Amino acid sequence: MSTLALDAARRASPATTPARLGPARLIAFSSLGMPLAAVEVPLSTYVPPLYASAFGFSLGTVGLIFLLARLWDAVIDPAIGLLSDRTRSRWGRRRPWIAGGAAIFALGAVPVFLPPAWFGPLALSAALFVLYLGYSMMATPLAAWMGELSGAYHERTRITTYAQALTCVALLLALVLPSLLVTRLADQPRLELAAMGAMVFALLALTLPLGIRALPEPPPPSGAQDPVRVWHTLRLVFGEGMLLRVLASNAAVRLAQGVRTALFVFFISHYMGHPAWAPGLFLLQYVFGIFACPLWLAIGRRVGKERAAVAGELTQVAINLGLLALAPGSVALLLALTVAQGLAQGSGNLMLRSIVADVADYHRLRTGEDRIGLFFSVFSLSDKAGVALAIGIALPLAAWIGFDPRGSNPAPVLEHLKWLFALGPAFGHIISAAVIHGFPLDERRHGDIRRQLAARDAAGLVSDASRDRWLAEASREGD
Question: PANTHER family recorded for this chain (predicted)?
Fold first, then answer.
């Protein structure tokens, strides 16, 4: 390659001359994830029992319907990631999927939250399958788009931090609304469903036109695309050792968080003896989770993503082990640990999500193929696998120690519940830290990868120079 081309590569490299996107545009863009986050809490916590009470479905039937819907959600993620990577249109790669997914998401959400009188198990199943299809069509391309907004090592973490903060805000809204509705609409499950649906629809209507136009899409890599070979592609993806480490670490994080969530109400209600405190403590945790986002961004900038992820996971281990010091009357310590949990919340997820885009750069350098959408889809798959595994482990273990959620429990059983509530998440966070510790793709190596990609682009293979011009233009259009 000529010296002129190498000089052009250095000038174009986002690793050396990163453009910084304006906060207002990043907030508007990141708001696209808010309706997706807001629908998670109702669908996982409040909607299933409301269907049992409003329509007389058995809990087993409701559980099976929602389980199959989430499995469908997980199965379609990789296909959507692969297809969105290969999409070429005048509107970009990701934007058509998000806009189309929003319409499908709304089409499925309307009957779920505003069910007609004749609604039965098959109709609910069909509506949920449509809702989750739209959900995946929005979530996976959005995650890939975020990863493409910058090639700079720390700027990617900053972008992810905005998304994480707005997700916490949406989760906070989704937790506040049901707690207000419990007392006002206790005997009107249809109105409770409608109110929760109204919040999701309002967020979708507000954020979709705002977010989808907030930033232009980065130009896709140029050149001819090979035909889709699904099994070959999946072998390449799951043969990427660094990606597998990120997926395993993230699944362990989600396992830890899922065990804590599954046992949280039981622990607060039965061990601490304060069932009315559970919603408030959840809210307190998520409020401090919002404040945690810039904190962990600063830590990541100072020590790097891998060290920040390890530090966050070990902090969570210490907090969960601190639960062993709790006694039923230890209110001050419980509040302190809840605040600490909020401040540590999402630290691992934040860094690991940012690392996925870095690994996608490494993969593109090795193979010449841009599979960032596919990479984020399998990252989402690790999210769902970790949560599913947590429910499959935590509740049977609670039953095995003799815990009865409907009756009184002797002191030894409650003490075992506390140990399960503390050690289960701690174990998951230790695994996550151990897996990601020593991750080789640091800032220096990622900078080398970006410079090599830019050098290849300068030879006319990919258009990272146009990406840099796009970033500069988007930054000037910002605040």
Answer: MAJOR FACILITATOR SUPERFAMILY (MFS) PROFILE DOMAIN-CONTAINING PROTEIN, MAJOR FACILITATOR SUPERFAMILY DOMAIN-CONTAINING PROTEIN
